[in-house]
Specification:
single chain, 314 residues, alpha/beta, Aminopeptidase, 7 helices, 28% strand, globular
Length: 314
């Protein structure tokens, strides 16, 4: 019998379809996971969920000072009419990508078909399948988990890995908040009211964004998780410096990232009416927003360690 991977929970989450706007399957999984596993955590958190939080979940540990935000939605496609598709978020589109969807007639696999108009340069997205999906059905990439000694690869590492890291940190967290948010891949919308609640109820004003970055000319495998100094937005430098100082003091591996594009739940925090400090911290991957997102195990473990240290010392 093959030995089970230590990443079985991550593998399972990568197989749960939950595109922006339909995060209920991930919410249900997380509530079950938290109920089953929190008995063994160092501190059993207060679980906040319900109509006033829509499909988001907030875990409150002890006397929180810092909040981790990890979005539970993914990119995907919405069936329009006939075989037409509309993107959810920013998936890479390539003819032949395998898709899967579930409507009232059941689960069905499909393949993506990209049609290019050579005259106009416009691209039209369609799917190929044995039958038409019902209008409004969400399609997501069909999961194919691949694991080697060094790497794990599947669709939706962004952001199932950010969620996985937060769940691992929850095992030893004494004081803090973990927020599982929604809609991040398609314009956001939940963090605006979640931050208001946290600022008012718990007087929290600093956050870490548990999300996935990308391998680039300055970011490489095995060098540790990314501490992002900027993307399309610029966090407050004094907060970033504090995080770097803590990482150095505790000999945590990390890489500094500087980009001019991209974004995360941090956008809603920076635009909020309450003052928030924030920093994006996460492992980097290849093949972003495709069925083949790939990360190095060393960077995954480094991400978890860095979050444990920061949540203890910030």
């Amino acid at each position: 019998m093959a030995k089970a991977s230590k990443y079985e929970t991550l593998k399972l989450m990568c197989h749960i379809p939950a595109p922006s706007g339909n995060e209920v399957p991930m919410k249900q999984f997380l509530l079950y996971y938290i109920k089953e596993h929190s008995k063994q955590w160092k501190v059993k958190p207060k679980v906040l969920e319900g109509p006033e939080f829509q499909d988001n979940i907030i875990l409150v540990f002890g006397k929180p000072r810092t909040a981790i935000f990890a979005h539970i939605d993914s990119i995907g496609f919405t069936v329009r009419y006939e075989k037409q598709l509309v993107k959810i978020g920013g998936p890479v589109t390539k003819t032949g990508f395998k898709l899967i969807g579930n409507d009232s007639k059941g689960v069905q696999e499909a393949t993506l078909n990209v049609i290019e108009d050579k005259k106009t340069g416009m691209r039209k997205l369609e799917y190929k399948a044995k039958r038409n999906f019902e209008t409004g059905t969400e399609l997501t990439f069909k999961p194919e988990w691949r694991e080697t000694k060094d790497h794990i690869q599947c669709c939706y590492m962004d952001n199932r890995l950010g969620v996985y890291s937060a769940l691992k940190v929850a095992e030893t967290l004494k004081d803090g908040v973990i927020v599982f948010s929604t809609w991040e891949e398609h314009g956001g919308g939940s963090v605006q009211y979640l931050q208001r609640f946290l600022a008012k109820k718990y007087k929290i004003s600093q956050a870490l964004i548990s999300d996935i970055s990308w391998i680039s000319d300055g970011v490489h495998y095995t060098k540790g998780p990314v501490i992002s100094m900027r993307d399309s937005l610029i966090p407050r430098r004094s907060y970033i410096n504090k995080i770097i100082s803590i990482a150095n003091k505790n000999k945590c591996a990390y890489q500094l990232e500087v980009e001019g594009s991209g974004g995360s739940d941090a956008g809603a925090l920076q635009m909020a009416e309450n003052p928030w400090d924030w920093c994006f911290i996460g492992a980097a991957e290849e093949n972003v927003h495709t069925p083949d997102e790939k990360v190095h195990k060393k960077d995954v473990e480094g991400m978890i360690k860095l979050y444990e240290v920061l949540m203890r010392e910030l």
